[in-house]
Amino acid sequence: MLSMVKSGELDVEEAKARISAQFPTVEDLGFAQLDIEREKRTGFPEVIFGEQKTVEQLVAIFQKLKQHTDRILATRVDPEKAAEAMKSLGDITYHDQARILTWFKKPILKVHEGYVAVVCAGTSDLPVAEEAAIVCEAMGNHVERIYDVGVAGIHRLFAKLSLIRGANAVVVAAGMEGALPSVVGGLVSKPVIAVPTSIGYGANFQGLSALLSMLNACAPGIAVVNIDNGFGAGYYAGLINKNRSVQK
Amino acid sequence: MLSMVKSGELDVEEAKARISAQFPTVEDLGFAQLDIEREKRTGFPEVIFGEQKTVEQLVAIFQKLKQHTDRILATRVDPEKAAEAMKSLGDITYHDQARILTWFKKPILKVHEGYVAVVCAGTSDLPVAEEAAIVCEAMGNHVERIYDVGVAGIHRLFAKLSLIRGANAVVVAAGMEGALPSVVGGLVSKPVIAVPTSIGYGANFQGLSALLSMLNACAPGIAVVNIDNGFGAGYYAGLINKNRSVQK
Amino acid sequence: MLSMVKSGELDVEEAKARISAQFPTVEDLGFAQLDIEREKRTGFPEVIFGEQKTVEQLVAIFQKLKQHTDRILATRVDPEKAAEAMKSLGDITYHDQARILTWFKKPILKVHEGYVAVVCAGTSDLPVAEEAAIVCEAMGNHVERIYDVGVAGIHRLFAKLSLIRGANAVVVAAGMEGALPSVVGGLVSKPVIAVPTSIGYGANFQGLSALLSMLNACAPGIAVVNIDNGFGAGYYAGLINKNRSVQK
Amino acid sequence: MLSMVKSGELDVEEAKARISAQFPTVEDLGFAQLDIEREKRTGFPEVIFGEQKTVEQLVAIFQKLKQHTDRILATRVDPEKAAEAMKSLGDITYHDQARILTWFKKPILKVHEGYVAVVCAGTSDLPVAEEAAIVCEAMGNHVERIYDVGVAGIHRLFAKLSLIRGANAVVVAAGMEGALPSVVGGLVSKPVIAVPTSIGYGANFQGLSALLSMLNACAPGIAVVNIDNGFGAGYYAGLINKNRSVQK
Amino acid sequence: MLSMVKSGELDVEEAKARISAQFPTVEDLGFAQLDIEREKRTGFPEVIFGEQKTVEQLVAIFQKLKQHTDRILATRVDPEKAAEAMKSLGDITYHDQARILTWFKKPILKVHEGYVAVVCAGTSDLPVAEEAAIVCEAMGNHVERIYDVGVAGIHRLFAKLSLIRGANAVVVAAGMEGALPSVVGGLVSKPVIAVPTSIGYGANFQGLSALLSMLNACAPGIAVVNIDNGFGAGYYAGLINKNRSVQK
Amino acid sequence: MLSMVKSGELDVEEAKARISAQFPTVEDLGFAQLDIEREKRTGFPEVIFGEQKTVEQLVAIFQKLKQHTDRILATRVDPEKAAEAMKSLGDITYHDQARILTWFKKPILKVHEGYVAVVCAGTSDLPVAEEAAIVCEAMGNHVERIYDVGVAGIHRLFAKLSLIRGANAVVVAAGMEGALPSVVGGLVSKPVIAVPTSIGYGANFQGLSALLSMLNACAPGIAVVNIDNGFGAGYYAGLINKNRSVQK
Amino acid sequence: MLSMVKSGELDVEEAKARISAQFPTVEDLGFAQLDIEREKRTGFPEVIFGEQKTVEQLVAIFQKLKQHTDRILATRVDPEKAAEAMKSLGDITYHDQARILTWFKKPILKVHEGYVAVVCAGTSDLPVAEEAAIVCEAMGNHVERIYDVGVAGIHRLFAKLSLIRGANAVVVAAGMEGALPSVVGGLVSKPVIAVPTSIGYGANFQGLSALLSMLNACAPGIAVVNIDNGFGAGYYAGLINKNRSVQK
Amino acid sequence: MLSMVKSGELDVEEAKARISAQFPTVEDLGFAQLDIEREKRTGFPEVIFGEQKTVEQLVAIFQKLKQHTDRILATRVDPEKAAEAMKSLGDITYHDQARILTWFKKPILKVHEGYVAVVCAGTSDLPVAEEAAIVCEAMGNHVERIYDVGVAGIHRLFAKLSLIRGANAVVVAAGMEGALPSVVGGLVSKPVIAVPTSIGYGANFQGLSALLSMLNACAPGIAVVNIDNGFGAGYYAGLINKNRSVQK
Prior knowledge:
Chains A, B, C, D, E, F, G, H: It holds the Pfam family AIRC. Chain A is of the alpha/beta class.
């Protein structure tokens, strides 16, 4: 490339652009270095992990990101912080079950074909499942929710099988013994993203039991994200569905 | 009781018998104290745990127990030890898949009504399932074997459901993610004895994954024994079936 | 079956009934899919796991289940939630030590012969033992409670031995080192359901010590449920006792 | 459906076909129940897990499956077993680094567009990476191999970045600290399947270190399979690439 | 030495001095034995671990140490305790992000050449990084802070690479998967002190994931301190930089 | 014995006494079975584990035990419960650092010769050390306290070595890396009771680090009790010292 | 002391002797620094841990120690090494069950009063129990062996209770669930040294189950040594018995 | 830089050189990508991790590296592989205790001032200590070895204290409880690199005990490397000593 620049084949601006694609600029807030070109590179802006951030930090990041993108997500925001942030920012929305704050410049247009199925085993797994669903929708995917269909009453799952089989990717959230992804994985031919939840007690060890079950699933076509990582599961399923659509 | 003896109300022999029911005599082999009255108390003689015993110890215990009982079981006997023990003892039988040595004075008579179902998830779980089945049969129970019906192809399980539902107790052996007992537990109304096997690799941690799954099973009616403990599972199921029959 | 329907041998309603026995209908509350035919299939209605449910969810489930069954249990309900639920529902009962809410259309009739023994090692294990006992009683079993008979003063256990030996199934709850089930298992010839409790400190690791002890119990005839799972233990023991009785 | 059969609207054969799609028949080998309709349902036949199977079992399964499919894979076959199986079966191929036995009735035709990138961190991760690559190819996908590009010399990764970015799915195998998927995940916008390997020593705990790293990866777009599960990773990536192609 | 004393070659005072260098005197506060000669031996006074100490104990230790040294540090002091201690002591300073209390008789003079780089992966790792930086500065070292440069956006790290490479020792704090030290270790030729933080959730296990990653780092030149041990990391880096300077 | 009773050789009362020595009577409080003959058998009355007991239960047990013994100890009583119990009972004493409630009918008379040394590594280990010391004293032993002599400043230990060496048993409490018992064990020839404390953070895992250190101590003459089990350590040391004295 | 030397009050030799009692000389073999004055200080010479040592190292250490002591023990010596060492050294004895090599200049004289009881739960625990017994005897203690009295048949223990109660210290070795020390601890008033063995399988985790049980024992008067550490247990019990005797 | 190239200020070759300093070329062997410019960047060539490599791979790497460097190290090479490699390569040296293969074009010249102390606790830790020492020497550092000075006989350590204190960096290897680094860390003012070894048994868990001890060391100035990672410890210490020297 250097020779091309030297010879004039390539002009300096173009060369800079090519290099900056590899070394994108960041927006420096002191406490954080925002990856503002992330959306350009990957199709989706940086998502804010809200758990350890203060309200002030959240607000500052939203304000800065608004200058560079038309959609912002912050996950793991508890209701108190969300309420305070909404007072400062006004135009953001709080999804209380999913504990997500979103801001959209314009309504999400469902641009991608097909859909993602978000399945969960029990009522207690709902927050994780909703986190996955909201993230997936924010990426422009259609989501079908199939909740409370755990293996202890497996007929509930069979009743929804066609809907699950029709999806391009399937998120399965389960706590306790985490057996649902194995059963689903044996019944569908699409990628399953298993997300263990920390629901349970005793030898559950805060989700370890479900995590190990899912990693050891004997059905193929299952990959696993961290315990309670609804965001990661939804993002991954959304990526698969989006890439199928984008391809055409 | 002492007063009754004093007054002659109770004779010394009878009193001794009552006490010895609580403090049974043992047969002292030096390296082992055989609980020879166990069969009288519990209906089944002491079972020999063969894993750390030498061939000499096994032979000595068989020879001594033959004087007190008409059936003997030794579990976890590897083929080499078994072959040597058979040379010394002649009239014993080796069940190679279950790794059990048995001796019966007379053929086992199926005395108990009903049956136990022994279910396993995969071909690799067979040794543990067979250990359970052989022990259960030695206790005088009829056993139905339903093998290789793991959750990755759940239709295989449904095809055998009536047979499983008809049992008085169900042993379910599974490795990897150990999800099968949860599914079975949701479909039957009889006690399920879940036995995790050490089959798997990586984050399976030699059966820990299956063990945790089974302890966290969301279906009721499931209890768990140690990893690879086919003997314990078979004995437990046999006890339930036997007690139902004995009761009448 | 299809051929039988075609030929008229089997009428459509009967065929439907046979199929619905395999695929029972559910009552969909949005956040939960109630398995309302469970009692018909297994003899006992679905039990509500109250820990992560809100008061509103609990009340809604009670109200719906009342239309389908004549007894309802919710476990792991803390006193605050219980008090609020009782205000809404009126005719329910709270068992504070066991943390269980119950509703019965009519008094429980003791229908099953024999009894279950519920044994615990120390005063601190009482809540778990009571959870087991209440569940067992709700299933129509008679329960004998034998509390605070841990191995550190083993004479306390011997004083109660006849009562324990007379039971058809024995629940043994213990924390700390969890040695009691091993000792009991060596003294009785009925199935023992061991339930480790999270009582202890330091290297107890919230019940792990007792759990491992019980899984490794050297006496046969012992199966284990999850840490603090009084419900599971009581249900399992109740199942064994009930099935014996039902059989006749 | 029953009514339709009754009325003649649906003939019995068609009804059976519909039902058998849900309950596929199996080929019963005694020790195994082969899921012979799996390919019809999911597009790929059942893969044999060779680790605990005997040579006789492997041969019997190959012979039976040949009647139903035109491609067979057995994973985790050690060289000794492979050599013996090849003597019996003749027309099978052994991939020694991947430890996979394959049989194809006709050459694999690359039917799917795009490609999968299989990346590994070190020379020692090659067997796992090759397992992924061979499985992926057997599914009809093109694979690009990028090996020995671990984070300790991160320039090696950057040199291959375009090739990785062009893939539809990226398998990343790494042992030791397992950091490579996080770095790759931050640089590409396609789904990354992270596969921890058991390479390392000491506090590596047979791959646990890499497994935890990958589950905790801070970059989105990463899902994880079991330690050393090259098969699972390759299958998953292949599924994503295949589904994109199939869709059109 | 004794012979030398006897012969008068060595006088008693000198001998005492030599011995006391090995057995330094302590200041006994009852609840604590202050190592008041530590600074003389090692160049830096004993640092107070504030976590389990009461305000009274903290104040008493500060007051006593002031008599023996001209700089005092107390780490892990929460804001409430700090506020109370400041009321009693007046002339101390609280570094709230680092949770450190300091007292200096006179301003710190930067006496050592060169500098230490303190690098952290995310905004949430700041408290640990600041603890390291403040300790390092209190030892008389210059510190360069490079924050929020985690591997998910690795271009942020490359932008700061020259600054990091110029340091004599590099502290790298990271939570989640803890991959940053491996990457840094492959790019610099100076000792890296890796400090895992407890930031993360689920299979992070309070910093275990990052700890294992760092211990298994495949790049050489990395050593690790305890989870969240910013003090230890800063002290260690400070020691390396100080010793280089002192040497001349 | 029965024959002796029959023949009149042994009278019934004497026989009963001999038997009751084996099966002591208990005082049944409903929620607890007090082992009131324990002091007669072992020289020390049952100690109350206060952690999970209510104030009402504590008071009831104190009141009952007062009828049978002249000294009562309750450990792990938090200040709130202690204050309430003192209101009800009046004549009890609370040792706040040790969190022990005691009642003595008459002052403890130091009856045993020799003494026990209670050593601890840091100021934060004081509560555990004090628990050990108070229990030991209540058993009638003299205790020497040697506190804050951890291995980071090993000269502090050497200064107290004669005092430690003179004891008949040595309790050593330490948190963090728990190295002190190894060093002490190499310097004394009396039994060392090592008690790990839960003091520390990060990879300390609530005392696991110190526990493992102590179990792996390379010096002989060291045995270990549970994490934070000051009571157990003090009781054990007291037993050794008492038995030496009693013997004469 | 220095002043006393200076003034002539204390002569140099005496001062040296006093100091060398604190800093004993060692015999340097290059690969090992033998603590040859250990016997003088503690009453028993250094015991050789044979596990990782070569035959050559063992022989060299025996030859050197013979010059300084009249008894030598090497533990954890496997039969092959023992046979080779005996060829070189001639006058040593191998205890094959305990895997200990001993050399005595003259026969052991039983010098200490009283005895130690060594109890074990099962036949498989014999090697560990024998290691304890041999070490204890080598220290000059009388040992009573009570083997195979595990809790699954608790009457075997009661039959030996008087013998156990008469000991000055009780070693209890047990594998599997490790419940025996708790039961023994509740029945005796002498110090119990619990030694977990690695006997068991599955969730035993190589002795972890028994170790945790023993650390959590609810009976007081129990301390624990490392898994399979028969040497440590025997040494500790021997120390207690010896010190009682020495005292007079 | 691009502008400078365009304007001719910087010529293309110079620009390439600057860039290649950031993206060094590699030597591609197919199975490995050798980082041949590593020595230029960091002062020491890439070290070969020999554990999973075949003899053929080792030989190929040695042959290739000889073209680029004048010193090569391969660690973790077992004696069999070493013997075969020496046959092929001739001029390499095997350090059998350290299990390292080295090749030097010319003798190592001790170029760096000062020295590194390598300390180990027991004879069994020698291989790890030697690995550290050999690596350190290969980097051009002088090493002082101080072996078998563990805390069970702490006087052995004090005898060598001056030698340890004189070093610029101290490697301390220890197994079992791993207490030695804490003690050394409290006595010296130079950076200590603690390396846990896997020596021990039972609750040692293959070095976990020592690892945790070292991470929790209460003395400052200690950093830790992976279990048995003598290479990492030696390299780190060598880096510190080298950098001090280089600086002048």
